[in-house]
């Protein structure tokens, strides 16, 4: 089976055995405790992600780089990117793995900026993946939020919001370089539109995501796209994905479901419908004929 890229935080599979979640007003915090000798997968980040490793190792592959996040380290990942990960527990601790994920929406960053009055200075380079050690203050913060997961239904929404703002203040006071990168996430540099499209054409990205990655407003992105491709972005992208899907169905042994998710579609029923509308036959029929 092909590797399906899951959109997070919405697509996280919550299990009562090893993972718990705080989710209020669109903000999500995930605590995961498990035992593993190695688990791999792919994620598309709908929000900025701040991940703390408390035990074990969390490897992140982005582009042609591999980043290793170890115990008492944190990593900041910008939103609207696809990462591949490998998770492994500590061999001398029965392969235990523990980490905590904070998904940070732009709205929270805006609120924090207004409250903190932090002076923004342009980083020398905006990096999509940034690793820092976790100091004692941040370790104490992680411990303070753990009890919330035991009674998540009783926790007020506003309290979780305050705890997320507290996290940002703690980072600001200790990790200026990371905080400036975090603030810079709101200041995306205008990028080559065609390059952004080609890099993400098979990822489960929305038009809004592509606009963000290109450093444009949604309206500017649509206007610039139309001028380059002479077609609305949603129509052009769907056609490219369908043509790639037909190629995979024709020349590989992949199933219809695997092809659906590999080419950026998120729903197999919708994929079959648009495929039939475009090519005149459903993907399952094409697969049967070829067989």
UniProtKB/TrEMBL annotation:
Gene3D superfamilies: Homeodomain-like. InterPro entries: ExsA-like_N, Homeodomain-like_sf, HTH-like, HTH_AraC, HTH_AraC-typ_CS, Tscrpt_reg_AraC-type_HTH. GO terms for molecular function: DNA-binding transcription factor activity; sequence-specific DNA binding. Keywords: DNA-binding, Transcription, Transcription regulation. Residues 191-289 form the HTH araC/xylS-type domain. Transmembrane segments: none annotated. Pfam families: ExsA_N, HTH_18. It comes from the Bacteria. PROSITE patterns: HTH_ARAC_FAMILY_1, HTH_ARAC_FAMILY_2. This is Helix-turn-helix transcriptional regulator. It comes from Paenibacillus sp. SYP-B3998.
């Amino acid at each position: 089976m092909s590797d399906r890229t899951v959109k997070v935080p919405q697509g996280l599979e919550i299990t009562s055995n090893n993972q718990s979640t705080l989710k209020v007003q669109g903000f999500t915090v995930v605590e995961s405790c498990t035992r593993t000798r190695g688990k791999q997968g792919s994620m598309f980040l709908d929000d900025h992600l701040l991940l703390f490793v408390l035990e074990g190792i969390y490897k992140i592959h982005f582009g042609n780089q591999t980043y290793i996040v170890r115990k008492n380290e944190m990593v900041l990942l910008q939103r609207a990117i696809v990462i591949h990960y490998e998770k492994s527990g500590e061999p001398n601790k029965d392969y235990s793995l523990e980490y905590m994920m904070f998904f940070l929406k732009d709205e929270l960053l805006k609120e924090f900026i207004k409250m903190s009055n932090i002076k923004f200075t342009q980083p020398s380079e905006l990096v999509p993946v940034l690793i820092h050690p976790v100091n004692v203050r941040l370790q104490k913060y992680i411990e303070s939020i753990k009890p919330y997961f035991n009674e998540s239904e009783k926790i007020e929404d506003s309290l979780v919001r305050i705890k997320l703002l507290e996290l940002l203040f703690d980072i600001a006071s200790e990790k200026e370089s990371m905080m400036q990168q975090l603030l810079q996430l709101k200041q995306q540099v205008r990028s080559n539109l065609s390059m952004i499209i080609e890099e993400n054409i098979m990822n489960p990205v929305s038009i809004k995501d592509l606009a963000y990655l290109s450093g444009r407003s949604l309206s500017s992105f649509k206007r610039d796209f139309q001028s380059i491709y002479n077609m609305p972005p949603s129509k052009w992208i769907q056609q490219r994905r369908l043509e790639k899907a037909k190629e995979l169905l024709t020349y590989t042994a992949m199933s219809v479901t695997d092809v659906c998710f590999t080419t950026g579609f998120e729903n197999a029923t919708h994929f079959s419908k648009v495929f039939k509308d475009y090519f005149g036959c459903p993907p399952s029929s094409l697969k049967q004929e070829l067989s």
